[in-house]
Write a structure and sequence with these properties.
alpha/beta, 9-stranded mixed sheet, 7-stranded mixed sheet, 27% helix, 24% strand, binds thymidine-5'-diphosphate, binds magnesium ion
Length: 483
């Protein structure tokens, strides 16, 4: 009797057998599976806080399970026939490169980025380019903006294709029906956070809404071999808003990054089931939309500063691409209080570490100096290969010594001041020699380097060696002291 009461009053566990009206949603504890009719802050079963998420349960789920069981047959690994991936070239080289050589048919791609960075613009351009042969259709699901706003943007971009169908609805079930009817080659949903599943009571953008809408859209697209792009907002922390599970539903996750104050935009693959991760595409936001930049190094160096101290060219690798960029440093006396360190374009903590290494290992006094470090062009570098050029730039500014224009550097700097090898040195040198650089400082590679092109490679073991080679001042070699 007590058992019955328990079932009556407190919502029961999901066991698959319970018959619930179709489309009913429940709140389910994500840790123990406890179900409730309403949202609870604390789970009465496992005492977890904030673990309830709205889910569709009942007939719909049981049906799905029966469908799955019908096709569930295991196969020996050795006998699985490898299917050739059916890829479509979008026609925008930088996008195709990031996707690993075009978009795979039936795949789902999540495109994240800050508001105003150009996601909607990119999507419209992708749809336009993919349907430019006139044979295929594309669907743009405008869940945030009105049809007129989309039309206005299309006009600005000079896009007037009758093969792009714009759908201004947020109901995911209706949108999926329309996608099935039109059978387009590509679909863009802008944005997934604005979509609404009518069976769920929670507001658009909530964890359950985003998850259910995304999985329905992805299933629909896969069913008809359509490639689907889902635009996702990012949170303050820079993560795609919504559940982490969204990243598992899709095949690839791309981020569109950039500084709002600069025109440069980078499209980066952070997950890709069908291609390399980390690959980047480089664009410039201009009057006519996003313009691909096939030679980003040239673009980044085109405004490099004329013969001033504190400026050094660094060769970094993003994805598999070498990028040459100008690292600038300014060292100025501190007149009041604690010295300031201001860093843009590279990791703040890494820059502080370099300052400490310079002070301690090479005896360059910086504790009474403000240090500003900036990577020109609005690009953010996370690769440690930027260490050596950044350290040289700081020393160059400190001693007001100009580094020759045709010289570059790359390499990681350790806490002892030692210069450590970084991957793909030959690719960096090739890019440098292509752009006319004559000399490059970098780590010593035991196996030696095969350099094609006319560039002199100078291996350095310690950051002091690099600095004393470039800057003529009385620098005592202290790098063994105290170790
Ligand atoms: P948008 O694609 O709306 O960004 P998101 O969808 O990521 O929020 O683009 C936003 C910015 O791009 C907007 O500030 C205007 C600018 N823009 C251009 O500079 N050139 C163009 O051709 C277009 C369409 C937009
Ligand atoms: Mg937008």
């Amino acid at each position: 009797m007590c058992q019955n009461l328990h079932v009556e009053v407190i919502p029961h566990r999901l066991n698959g057998e319970i018959d619930m009206p179709k489309g009913r949603s429940k709140f389910v504890c994500q840790l123990c599976g406890f179900q409730s009719e309403q949202w609870l802050g604390k789970c009465p079963e496992c005492s977890a806080f904030n673990s309830f998420v709205e889910e569709i349960v009942g007939e719909a789920k049981a049906e799905k399970r029966r469908e799955r069981e019908a096709v569930c047959v295991a196969e020996p690994l050795g006998e699985i026939a490898l299917k050739k991936l059916n890829r479509i070239l979008i026609g925008i080289d930088e996008v195709d490169r990031v996707l690993g050589g075009g978009v795979v048919r039936g795949s789902a791609i999540l495109v994240g980025g800050e508001p105003g960075i150009g996601k909607s613009t990119l999507m419209l351009q992708v749809l336009n380019s993919a349907t430019s042969d006139g044979k295929h259709r594309a669907v743009y699901v405008a869940a945030e903006e009105s049809m007129e706003q989309i039309a206005l943007r299309a006009e600005r971009l000079g896009i007037s294709s009758s093969n792009i169908f714009v759908l201004s609805d947020v109901d995911v079930t209706l949108v999926c029906e329309e996608i099935e009817r039109l059978k387009p080659l590509v679909v863009a949903v802008d944005s997934i956070q604005a979509m609404l599943h009518p069976d769920l009571a929670s507001a658009p953008g909530s964890v359950s809404q985003v998850r259910e809408c995304a999985s329905l859209l992805v299933r629909t697209a896969k069913g008809i071999g359509t490639s689907i792009f889902l635009v996702g907002h990012v949170t303050k922390e820079g993560l795609i808003a919504g559940p982490k599970v969204l990243e598992h539903i899709v095949d690839a996750v791309l981020y569109l990054e950039g500084d709002q104050n600069y025109a440069l935009r980078i499209l980066r693959a952070v997950k890709n089931r069908f291609g390399p991760v980390g690959e980047i595409g480089v664009f410039k936001m201009s009057e006519g939309g996003l313009e691909p930049i096939p030679n980003p190094s040239e673009h980044l160096l085109s405004h490099s500063s004329v013969n001033v101290s504190g400026s050094v060219v660094g060769a970094v690798i993003e994805g598999r691409r070498p990028l040459l960029l100008e690292i600038q440093a300014l060292v100025a006396p501190t007149y009041f209080g604690a010295p300031r360190r201001l860093v843009t374009g590279m990791d703040y903590n890494r820059a502080c570490m370099l300052i400490a290494v310079l002070e301690r290992r090479t005896r360059i006094r910086l504790s009474d100096q403000d240090v500003y470090v900036n990577v020109a062009g609005g690009i953010r570098v996370s690769e440690p290969a930027i260490d050596l050029p950044a350290a040289i730039a700081i020393a160059s500014s400190r001693y007001d010594a100009i580094i020759p224009k045709d010289m570059a550097a790359f390499g990681e700097v350790g806490l002892g001041g030692e210069v450590r090898p970084v991957p793909l040195p030959e690719r960096r040198l090739k890019e440098l020699s292509k752009l006319g650089f004559k000399k490059c400082l970098g780590p010593a590679y035991a196996e030696g380097l095969r350099i094609d092109g006319e560039i002199e490679y100078v291996p350095v073991k310690h950051v002091t060696d690099a600095i004393s080679m470039l800057i003529k001042f009385d620098l005592k070699s202290h790098h063994n002291e105290g170790d």
